[in-house]
Amino acid sequence: MGCPENPKPNFNFSYTDEGLDPSTIEFQVSDYLMLDDGFAADDSSSQSILSSEHVASGSSAGYSGATSRNNSIKHKNNGVKKNKTEVEQRIAFRTKSDMEIMDDGFKWRKYGKKSVKNSPHPRNYYKCSSSGCSVKKRVEREREDSRYVITAYDGVHNHESPCMFHYSNQMPLMAPNAWTLQPSSLHSSSSS
DNA sequence: CGGATTTGACCAGCGC
DNA sequence: GCGCTGGTCAAATCCG
């Protein structure tokens, strides 16, 4: 393991996908989900969760089980663990990849693995191993199409990537809070 | 030897 | 109230 020389080789394609031959990259983003601060309110939370589920279900909703579970997470975070002032951001990506582990520039420590009911594939749980950073990430393969990996990030890194140096042009940080700023650029990048 | 991973147990929330 | 399920913990194990 260790620090990859390229902090996020797997993510550059998000912005240059149009110009890359897919065969030259190991995988490509098929969808991205954005579950930001919808947790602040019940209505909006179900909205964002619902919409994210809809996106994820684009090809079979391997994430649907987790989605329903997200509701409980919402209550958990909102009512117990997190105040409104401490709303977590959450993003999920569906990527086509043979690998389950994607180097995003951060160092993750696996802390759990769980088989989920709606999926034959286990779900893996990771925490950011940086001290003081409580960002978590869940990784699982899509139920219907195991070529796709669903990666969900919970929270925002309170530090820079240990391997991040010169990628600030478009993405200052490979962190959920950075991504939430860029959803439109994912699509507009082709025209710019 | 230290850090990361594995894995079973435990806990909490939700639906019935 | 009970059972099911997802999420987390922590001891054991593995690996560099």
From TrEMBL:
Name used for this protein in its record: WRKY domain-containing protein
PROSITE patterns: WRKY
Subcellular location: Nucleus
Gene3D superfamilies documented for this protein: WRKY domain (2.20.25.80)
InterPro entries from the UniProt entry: WRKY_dom, WRKY_dom_sf, WRKY_plant
The UniProt record lists the keyword DNA-binding: yes
Ranges of Low complexity composition bias in the record: 44-68
